Amino acid sequence: MFKNRHISNTFAKRSVNLSVESDAAAQILPVCEIIRPKKRRELNKNNSSSNKGVDDVVYSTNRDDDIRDTRATSTYEIDTSSEHDCRATLERNLKIGKQILAGELKDKVYRGKGAYRPAITMEESSIAASKYTGLYGPVRASTTNVRSTLRIDYQPDICKDYKETGYCGFGDTCKFLHDRSDYKSGWQIEKEWNEQQKLKQQKLNAKLERFKRGQMGEDLDSEAEECISSSDEITDDDLEDEITPAVKKMIRKCRKIELPYACLECKRFWKLEMHPVKLSCGHYFCQDCAVKSYQQYGKCNKCGFTLDGIMNEAQKLLELLN
């Protein structure tokens, strides 16, 4: 009823008819060509034998590309370089000052701002500690990384009974930490910091008031006034220099304006080379004696007034000497 067709005999056959030449003797029979589909071979990534035709290409990594991609170890250069900031300059000046005092370098040679013979000895530890006062400019950053990892433990899980009494009923089976060390919350740290800032501000205000009183010459303590009146009396036996006519003229001028005509420490008559200075308490000394006294005691040798490093030029004495 139904005819069975053999598909295999007619599968992928193509008849190729070639043109018959003009010569009748030449006769070409038809040719059948079987075209089979090409099987594509799947590459197995796990098998190295299947990748024989692929060239092995290796790329070397670049650190700059990694920094731009991850940004984990990237740094910022907003602040001044640590080699040229204020702290580095102070450390360099301190090193130069020590070499000058030791005689390794010559004095009176310009080597930069502040690189001269130090009047007051200073240690490197004091430079590092002075960052809290803000005297030496911006604080050097501890790290230059942009991204930092921070962990805050809001729940320390410390055994309250053991911390307060030193005893816990659970013993070693307690799941909380047995620690009796003191720790503070954030609000307690902020409160103490605010109190410290208030004390610093009060000390600064008191120092400014003392400086203003010394500048204006008003509101001196009674003890300081007594010391000034008693110590300014210089006798002829205390003087070390010879009295010349020029010195006598200078003495008369100083007595008219009620100023000492000699240094209260070394008892030498005033000269321009001595660079007379006026302390905040009102006493007059030559520059060498004032600096030496401040290095040893930090106070005035006559009245014991705290100087705080304040020494001003004696303008009236300089006018007389000129």
From TrEMBL:
- Native species: Babesia microti (strain RI)
List keywords of the entry alphabetically: Metal-binding, Zinc, Zinc-finger
| Xref: Gene3D superfamilies | Zinc finger, CCCH-type, Zinc/RING finger domain, C3HC4 (zinc finger)
Which SUPFAM superfamilies does the record associate with it?
CCCH zinc finger, RING/U-box
The terms under GO molecular function for this entry are:
zinc ion binding
| Top-rank lineage group of the source organism | Eukaryota
Q: Which PANTHER family match?
A: RING FINGER PROTEIN 113B, ZINC FINGER PROTEIN 183
Instruction: Kindly give the PROSITE patterns that the UniProt entry links to this protein.
Output: ZF_C3H1, ZF_RING_1
**What region holds the C3H1-type domain?**
153-181
The reply on keyword Zinc-finger is: yes
Please name the GO terms of the biological process aspect recorded for this protein, alphabetically. Answer: snoRNA splicing
Q: What is this protein called?
A: RING finger protein 113A
Q: Which Pfam families match?
A: zf-CCCH
Query: The organism's lineage?
Result: Eukaryota, Sar, Alveolata, Apicomplexa, Aconoidasida
The record's Gene Ontology cellular component field reads: U2-type spliceosomal complex
Zn finger residue spans: C3H1-type? 153-181
